[in-house]
Specification:
eight-stranded mixed sheet, Rossmann fold, 18% strand, 10 helices, 309 residues, two-stranded antiparallel ribbon, alpha/beta, globular
């Protein structure tokens, strides 16, 4: 995970310079610990452990920007025997043109359902896959034969709540900002959590939705850039409402999500929440809420040694 996180942050520095997001990008020292993100990277206890194991079975829900980044990062782990793996891929969406720009597993020839393309990519590298091509709703429940651990790539808080109550032993999730002001904001959360699912992933109320729409209308009316793109007011609001997704942000998020998963299954420190601003990092501790210094064991997770320092 460290090489992926470091490379993604480096790309982010170049992007932040090019897009004039930060005047200090590429001119600052950046350091962080994936083992203890709440500590400075050179603090005692931030270096991690000598040997790691990784789960052989996982479910990945949502195969968009984040879900594909998780799988891409997972494929970088040095498993000794990929024939023993089982990755359950869960999504019911087809590939659309915007997905080609942000999906780590896609290219210009990708088409059809996201599950099929992700499975093809993974199986070409030796992983074994199973597909679940259905909408996840409040009735969804994990079967006893399904993997115990789930990676959540949803971009909808209601779906996150449904997944948290579906019976998985551990759920690892991240959420990204979606507009020009917070596109590089990352929040990593795991379940079970000390906060209830409704507080962890609040669903937008009708009043909040109306306020968001009023704000978007105001932005679309006052910004000449939107007027240049779309001639009518409805079109300008539609453009203003488009989310902003940049691949390196998903790569940073995937490193922190998989690091949380690996710490959890290796008895390391676990966190209720970790917050990262990918284009505003420095050599200092990150915003992270420590849950426990030693993760509670989870049964039913087949493991394989992956790394020895």
């Amino acid at each position: 995970m460290p090489p992926i996180a470091a490379a993604a942050v480096a790309v982010g520095e170049v992007f932040a310079t090019f897009a004039r997001v930060s005047v200090t990008a590429t001119r600052r020292v950046i350091g962080f610990s994936l083992w203890r993100p709440d500590l400075a990277p050179d603090a005692p206890g931030s270096e991690g452990i000598e040997g790691w194991e990784a789960p052989l079975e996982l479910s990945c829900f949502g195969l968009g920007h984040l879900g594909q980044a998780y799988l891409w990062a997972l494929a970088s782990l040095p498993y000794d025997d990929l024939s023993a793996t089982r990755l359950q891929l869960c999504d019911d969406d087809g590939i659309e043109p915007p997905n080609l720009e942000t999906g780590a597993l896609l290219n210009s020839q990708s088409k059809g359902l996201k599950t099929r393309e992700a499975a093809k990519w993974l199986e070409a590298r030796g992983f074994r896959t199973r597909l679940v091509e259905r909408f996840i709703d409040r009735q969804y429940r994990r079967h006893a034969r399904d993997p115990v651990i789930a990676l959540c790539g949803f971009d909808d808080n209601e779906a996150r709540q449904w997944l948290s109550s579906s019976g998985f032993g551990l759920v690892f999730d991240s959420g990204l900002g979606g507009d020009f002001g917070n596109f590089d904001s990352i929040a990593v959360r795991s379940w079970p959590n000390r906060r209830p699912a409704e507080a962890l992933w609040p669903v937008e109320t009708e009043e909040q939705r109306r306020e968001r729409e009023r704000r978007l209308t105001s932005v679309a009316q006052q910004n000449d850039g939107y007027a240049a793109v779309a001639p009518d007011e409805c079109g300008r609001v539609l453009v203003a409402n488009k989310s902003v997704a940049v691949p390196f942000v998903g790569a940073v998020a995937s490193a922190f999500v998989l690091a949380e998963m690996l710490r959890s299954v290796n008895g390391g420190p676990t966190f209720d929440e970790i917050r990262v601003k990918a284009c505003a990092m420095a050599h200092r501790p990150l915003t992270a809420t420590l849950r426990a210094m030693e993760a509670s064991p989870v049964s039913g997770v087949p493991m394989q040694a992956i790394l020895h320092r």
